Amino acid sequence: MTCLSTPSGSVRGSSVESEGITIQRFLGMPYAEPPSGANRFRPPVPLVGWQGVRDCTAPGPAAPQNPESPAPPGTKPRSWSEDGCLNLNIWTRGTDGPARPVMVWIHGGAYLFGANSDAMYDGGRLAAASGAVLVSINYRLGALGFLHLAELLGPGYEDSSNLALLDQLEALRWIRTNIRAFGGDPSNVTVFGESAGAAAVGALLGMPASEGLFRRAIMQSGTAERYRQPEESARISSAFLELCGLDRSSATQLLALPVGRLLEAQAALEQRVAAESFAVPLPFQPTVGTPSLPVPPLESVRNGVNRGVDLLVGTNLNEGSFAVETRPPASDDPGYPDRAAAVLAGAGVPAEEAPGYTEALTRVLSREPAGKELLEAAIADSMYRQPSNRLLDARLPGAARPAAGGKTFAYLFTWRSPAMGGKLGACHALDIPFVFRHLDIPEAAFLTRGKAPQPLSDAMSGAWASFAQTGTPRIAGLGWPEYGQERNTMVLDAEPGLEADPRREIREFFEAVSPLPSR
Length: 519
Fold this sequence. Notes:
Elements: E1 2-6, E2 9-18, E3 21-30, E4 53-55, E5 87-92, E6 100-106, H1 124-130, E7 133-137, H2 142-146, H3 150-153, H4 163-178, E8 184-194, H5 196-205, E9 216-220, H6 230-243, H7 259-275, H8 297-302, E10 310-316, H9 321-326, H10 336-346, H11 354-365, H12 371-394, E11 408-413, H13 431-436, H14 442-448, H15 454-470, E12 488-492, E13 497-500, H16 504-513
Parallel strand pairs: 2-4, 6-7, 6-8, 8-9, 9-10, 10-11, 11-12
Antiparallel strand pairs: 1-2, 2-3, 3-5, 5-7, 12-13
Helix pairs in contact: 6-7, 10-12, 11-16
């Protein structure tokens, strides 16, 4: 057992051997007061602290959530609690020597699922290999984290649609105050996340209140364009009220409904949204035009918010393969080309321009894409790759925007999973076990099949660690220059290599026909 004294109170953790190094871990530490009772649907309340020694040897509960459906192979049921969900975990080599860089992980899960206790996010191995202090946080999900109630409940609820982001900011404030006790450097914090976690990082980049809370950011399969306008969020709230058996006149009853009832309504809403989507259903997202997020994050970045933050952004080549391979076509399915056109339309591509996307993809592949391949690529480009390109380009100096003070780097992950006969390719979330050095754990087995190259994991975890330390990702034997006008991109495969503007034809297609950012 290991005991430490922190500004919030004394904590008792445990030690574990990881990659031949002793790692101290402190699990389930609260960073804010319970978000229940009078605090439901309100911004997080700063933690008062505690007396005595707090036992931090077991993970805390996840945020309330429904079971994932379909659940990724290896997913285990998560224990959740509205009262105790605002907690974090810390892994550190120790408190001796110079202060260590801090890496703060924000988990994904479509803003509906996930927890910092998931085995894939155990930070012990990455802390051992990198020397950084690893932190993983929980935050409110679904309706409890994103339901837009400003017009329904009035004062005190103006920011209810961004509570998940406000939770993350509160966690970062707690880290700034407490992390020295764990050997971390509060002036050298990197936030990183995947999928919804990366989208959260993209939103944080555009939030004025986040400035000064982190020095660097890594976005894995995320975007700075996941948001809704207030009127869109209000429509979601109206549908949610209906599913709860309420209306505008009885909306205050949301404050006292059992969490289980809220989750039942949330599940029904998820099904309704999924039935209307050919891509990835996302019923809950942050709302702009609100106190914490006054303008879209990408616009804020273009205007120079967090311009001094170093940024590493990338996607996986086949981000859409899970959506295509695990959702069987409905009886009235219009066919892959029409489904792809619908996905592209959601990204602002006019219907008459959709054939141009197929032509651009054909030039990239040097052959005409098959039906499933076309739909998968349309999802990957519309929801992940092209929004990432727009964020990267927003950091380039130009006449209409200030020069970024921080450095900007890009990657494209292309190693193909052997799962499902190779149909998934370089799929969504495949990068996570490479970064966290968990290629061999049971939760990664479905995707890796024991065939994932350890040298690629060494390269990626090392690059993430060097970026957190210095602001520049490094891979032995390779130069990794900034993104720049050449759009330099590190292609991460069994043999990583640098490429200028990969899949340029598709980027140029979107630039020409889709001037408005997708969401």
